[in-house]
Amino acid sequence: MATKHEQIIKHIHSLPVGNKISVRQIAKELHVSDGTAYRAIKEAENLGIVSTIERVGTIRIERKQKENFDRLTFAEVVNIVDGQVLGGREGLYKTLNKFVIGAMELDAMLRYTEADSLLIVGNRVKAHELALKEGAAVLITGGFDTDEQIKQLADEKQLPIISSSYDSFTVAAMINRAIYDQLIKKEIVFAGDILTRFEDAYYLHAKDTVQDWYELNQTSTHARFPVVDDRGRVIGMVTAKDIIGKESDVVIDRVMVRNPAVVQEKTSLASAAHLMVWEGIELVPVVDPSNKLKGVISRQDVLKALQQIQRQPQIGETIDDTISANLQASDEEEGVYHAEVTPQMTNQLGTLSNGVFTVLITEASRRLLAHEKKADMVVENVTVYFMKPVQLDSQLTIRPELLEAGRMYAKIDIEVLHDRKVAGRGLIMAQLIHR
To answer: Hey, is 202 helix, strand or coil?
Structure first.
């Protein structure tokens, strides 16, 4: 039987897009406490099926697909620009395809304003009216209001008209930044993106027997399975090693390993990979917050996804990407790298920041291992020694040296030079993931 939390999430899923939701309403309709309703609504917000807007409330929105992360709902725009909704609240769940800054004559504006777009404009009532009639929402900058008839038109068209105290350039930059951040998120793969769903996964119940394990092994050709209780919650893992020498009628509950490592759907692929390498396990159950089985991921799934990510072009660029792009292989010496200290790499004093130093030595080590061991690495420990501050525009030479390397483990010593003098050193110990 589903928990109250799950019942509320299912109920919210069933509501039409654009529907307003409140804690009190959910609590009353589903006969739960306000606290339970509040926690479920917050979970729904994390799932991307509702959005909460100050002075408006919480509304049901269309769940965003990964391929549509470069678009925002008008509800998200309100939060981004600290806006106030003047009219057209019923359309907050809609998605904008593009935005236009209305610093032009009305005739020219007409050519660029189209349905599902957002016109960013100041205190120009005629422009507000024109945009709404063309099927576009309106964002009024400078904190201005608009005429009552425009608000009524926005309600009729179900197109939001929003007011923000920021100027046009600032709100455009804020929206661009939000899209950019979401593009970076689009590239981050989670366990939920690659799992084998519960319906297709192989698992055993606690009351099953060793004979059931053999039958499932024959059917699936797998040797390890999650074990669930009557409510579908993961309580153990059972592998071939656990059942060897056991009678066929022995109950799985007596031979399984209890409290196994698990991940959730929002666990990043990198974290899942680290867990599997660190614990030396081949299969991890994916669970919901109540530990109910949602599916499984295997080491093969993780490695395949990691390799696919590396082959894909970057869409958004993080600060780590910027730093890594600045690291160039030496033309004279193999396994040696050069980097220039740019403004983005400095701290408030204008010298190379500690975090950037760590990124540089980690990336140099990763490239060395990719070349020499044909493997990726999961960092286990980093020790850093700073000898002297490095100024802006300085040229660095980075020399990683492989001290020890086994099948699953490596130790790398890194020397960082500036003007042929040691500026810092690092020691990295890492687990290896072979390609």
So the answer is: coil
Three-state DSSP class for residue 113: coil
pLDDT in tens, 284-330: 999 998 899 999 998 888 877 776 666 554 545 566 777 888 899 99
The torsion angles phi and psi of 283, rounded to 5 degrees, stand at -145, 135
Place of tokens 């919901």: 288
DSSP bridge partners of 101: 120
Find the Cα–Cα–Cα–Cα dihedral 294, 295, 299, 301, rounded to 10°: -110
Residue recorded with tokens 């692929």: 269
Q: Are 161 and 150 in contact (CB under 8 A)?
A: yes
CATH 3.40.50.300 fits 319-434, yes or no: no
For 102, counting Cβ atoms within 10 Å of its Cβ (0-12 exposed, 13-18 middle, 19+ buried), the class is buried
Buried b (16+ CB within 10 A) or exposed e, 329-359: eeeeeebbbbbebeeebbeeeebbbeebbbb
pLDDT in tens, 55-107: 667 888 776 554 444 567 888 889 889 899 999 988 888 888 788 887 667 77
For the chain, state the CA radius of gyration. 28
Tokens linked to 410:
């490596």
Q: Residue 345: what are its φ and ψ, rounded to 5°?
A: -95, 0
Q: What is the CATH number of domain 192-307?
A: 3.10.580.10
| Residue 378 · residue 340 · CB < 8 Å | no
Hey, where are the domains in the chain?
A: 4-60, 66-187, 192-307, 319-434
- Measured CA to CA, the distance from residue 112 to residue 97 in angstroms comes to 12
Please choose, from the candidates 340, 339, 410, the residue with its C-alpha nearest in 3D space to the C-alpha of residue 368.
Answer: 410
Residue 236 contacts residue 260 (beta carbons within 8 Å): yes
Q: What is the CATH number of domain 66-187?
A: 3.40.1390.20
Note the pLDDT tens digit of each residue in 13-52.
888 877 888 888 888 888 888 888 888 888 888 777 887 7
Residues 6+ apart with CB under 8 A from 334: none
Three-state SS annotation for 243-261: HCCCCCCCEHHHHCEECCC
Distances (CA, A) of 227 to 239, 244, 273, 279, 346: 10, 17, 22, 19, 51
Q: Beta-strand (E) ranges in 94-192?
A: 95-96, 98-101, 117-121, 137-140, 161-163
